[in-house]
Structure formats: structure tokens, C-alpha cells
Amino acid sequence: MSSLQALIVNKLRYHYQNLLEVINLRDLFSKRSIVSELRNPTEDFNLETQAIEYRKELLTGRACRINVKRSERKKQAQTGMGYSELIELSAKNCYFCPTNIKTATPMFPSSLVPEGRIKLGETTVFPNLFPFAKYHAVATVSRQHFLGIDEFTLKQIQDTLKASVKYFHCVKSKDQKAVYPIFSWNFLPPAGASVIHPHVQLTVDEQPTNLAWLYLSACKRYYAKHKENYWMHLLKIEKEHGERFLGEIGEVSWITSYVPLGNDEICGVLHNVSSLYSLDDTSISDLSKGLKRVFTAYTLYGVHSFNLSTFSASSEDESFRLIVRIIARPYPQSYYNNDAGYMERLHEEVIVESMPEKVASDLKEYFG
Ligand SMILES: [Zn+2]
Question: What is the whole-number distance in angstroms between the Cα of residue 91 and the centre of ligand 1?
């Protein structure tokens, strides 16, 4: 091939690569905008139009709606957590506090964990008293009964993850069928936590949850069709476009989701790991650093309650990457509006109050 031909081929390749990336972005997401009309009483009942985005994640078909005007409302950082009385009262007989944990929390069967509970640093892992999974454990994050969202230390987060992974390995060595682990954190009652003391939930089942199955099977199909890992492809595109890319901390990239499952959603994608079983000290350290930044960044919005959960393959899988998603929940005060209404609970369609691109631009500085 002559040098001129090589030049043309290279130029064409560059052109088509760029073209492909645009097409690929369109292949991942879709958006339809409509307007809704009303006569606004605060504007002399003049006709007003409001734009609503219907967003879809093409991989799974999951959809959400965002009212653009609503998402632009300035968030007021709330103060005066209405939970001080509850925190004080709940501390008196808390089963998860160091004085009670040995006598009041269940122990694992010796065939699963010979010592009865797993301990590491301030973390103790023990069975959930009322499990909703074949293997369902609870792990305390701190010895202290209450910590604010930005008060968790890196070591506390790291130890919680390490102890949790140890638990997952204990289950794996006992039961070859239970292969779908989930690491989750409901932080404070607006996120569904019935116990104030900081704790995470660990489940392992023989089958994935509805949404985990949707992602795992869709990613397998995506890989079979494109010979490429969906999450790594998504990260490449998000990094190039930058609108929803927050940053990279070691082996973990952080983005806001195009089709969030909740408000102010942040998603962490592990570069080299598809399952919770494969987390090692380095990936746990990187993940913990990122989570600490998420918690700190949330304080900018006055967020003090969240749900966190992982999506994990059953073992290393070239079609999948380990994902962690965090969504903000209402501010913990005595009277608050729940953010899950009929759309979320009965129609499984999420009304998102924040624009993912705005969340990314606001919170990016915390990940730099
Ligand atoms: Zn406690």
C-alpha cells in the first residue's frame, strides 16, 4: 500500500470511528421530549409549557421521566435533622452497639462461620434475624451508634467491604448453588432502614434479583452481538462526552446514570472485576475511596439518606462488570415527603427530580 493509500485508509478509519461512536451513543440511550401545558396561578394564569423528557436505556428497556423545569429548582440544603430524638432513644437498647452485639445478635451456623460471627476492625457480620434471602447477613459499619453521611472513615468503609467479601466467600465454599451476592446499604429510615446504627445488608441467593437478571442477561446478549463489554463501552463513551462522567479513582470509574433509578444517582463501575467474589485489597481500597467521595459530594445537595446496592455476576464474566449504584433519599426529618409514589411503586417507572448531567457538573469537583 502506498503512503497516500495508507493516509486515506487512516483518515477513513478515523472518520468511521467517530461516526461509530455517535451511532453507539444513540444505540445505548434514547430520549423523547414532549411538552405539557398548564395555566400557572403564580403567573396570572398565563399559559405555560413544561418540557418532560422520557428517557430509555436501550440495553434493558428501562425508562424514567424527568420534568426539566422541576429539575432546575434550586435545592435547599436542609438542616436540623429531625431525628436527634430518635437517635438518642434508639441508642438506649441498640442491638448493634458494642455493649449488646455479642448477646443480642444471631450467630451463623458453625458449618458456615465456625466463630459464629465475622469481625474486622469496627465491623461485625452476623445473620439477619428475619432473612429474606437464602443467606442474609448484616454487617455493622461503625462502633458508634450514629454517624452523619460524611463522617464515615475510609477504614470503616474498607473494613465493612472486606468483612462482607469474606462472608460471601464463606457462603461460596459451603453452597455451590448460592452464587448471586449483593452488598447493600439503606442509610437511615427515609431509605428503609429500621435500625439507626450504621449497617449494611449482605444477601446471597441461587437466582439474581429481577433487575440484576435484566442487566446480566442483556449484557450477555450485548457481548454476543458486539464482542464488547457493555459497561466498558459505556465508560469509554461517557468519558469522551463528559456530560455524566465524574472521574476515575484507581480501578473504579464514577458516572451519573442516563436513566437513573432514583434522584441524584451515582454509579460506580469496576474496571477489572465482574463479581463481588473477585474484590481484592486494591479494588476494595479504590471502591471505598470513591464511596467516601460520593457521601461527601452528597452533602453539597443536603443529602443525608441513601440507598446503595451492587449488581454482581456470579463469577468472572467477560460480558459484565461489577456495578455499585447509589441514590439519594429524602432528608431525615420527622415529616418528609416520600420520593416513591404510585409511578415508582405500582408502575415501576421512576420520576427523577434531578437532571443527571446537572448532578455530574455539580459534583464533579469531588472526584477530581
Ligand atoms: Zn447502636
Answer: 5
Cα of 21 vs centre of ligand 1, distance in Å, is: 50
* CA 87 to centroid of ligand 1, rounded, Å: 9
Helix (H) / strand (E) element for 124: namely strand 123-127
Q: Say whether 365 sits in a helix, a strand or coil.
A: helix
H or E, element range at 37: strand 29-40
**Per-residue pLDDT, 367:** 96
Q: What is the pLDDT of residues 129-163, one digit of tens each?
A: 999 999 999 999 999 999 999 999 999 999 999 99
**How high is the pLDDT of residue 332?**
86
What percent of the chain has a predicted confidence (pLDDT) above 70? 90
Ligand 1 centroid vs 96 CA: distance in angstroms? 5
| Cβ atoms < 10 Å from Cβ of 113 | 20
Cα of 207 to ligand 1 centre, how many Å?
32
Confidence grade of residue 286 (pLDDT, cut at 50, 70, 90): very high
| DSSP letter assigned to residue 160 | H
Ligand 1 geometric centre to CA of 120 (Å): 17
Ligand 1 centroid to Cα of residue 247, in Å, is: 34
Q: Which H or E element spans position 67?
A: strand 62-67
Cell reading at 103: 448477646
Report the pLDDT value the prediction gives residue 20, as an integer from 0 to 100.
45
Question: How many whole angstroms from 88 Cα to the centroid of ligand 1?
Answer: 10
Q: Report the separation in Å between the CA atom of 94 and the middle of ligand 1, taken as the mean of its atom positions.
A: 4
CA dihedral defined by 58, 62, 68, 73, rounded to 10 degrees?
A: -140
Minimal CA–CA distance to 294: which of 367, 198, 352?
367
Ligand 1 centre distance from Cα of residue 196 (Å): 7
Task: State how far the alpha carbon of 368 is from the alpha carbons of 157, 271, 300, 360, in Å.
Answer: 20, 18, 15, 12
pLDDT band at 220 (very low <50, low <70, confident <90, very high): very high
